[in-house]
Amino acid sequence: MSECMQFPDTWEEFEQSYGFEDKKEIYTNGSRLIQSFRVKQWLDHIAEPDRKKGEWIPFTMRELTDEEREENPEWDWVFTCKLPADGETVLLTNGKYVWEDMFCCDDGCYFDKADDIEDYDGYAWMPMPEPWRGDK
pTM score, two decimals? Predict the structure, then answer.
């Protein structure tokens, strides 16, 4: 199973979504903490240049570190690329065929019509193009 990170637009939203309290004050004086791998994922995401519509975004993944695996034993790997938003309809390709599909993030990440994909190597997605409006 994969882990799906939703990328908030602001630091405040990111901190709210992924921060947690050091309730026992073992590591801090009660400050909110965020796992370092989450911060790296978010920083990589916001540093990525805006992709143009019509450009394929290949899926990239990596295996979990030992520390991540201890915290999340049900995950095998994590995405390291920009992902569609939960519920977003996109174009999906396996390099041979192209189809429209909806990206879902609830109990893991998957595509509605292609929920049997176990390895996203060789797959890519792109945002839906703007509808043609004719000559203006």
Answer: 0.59
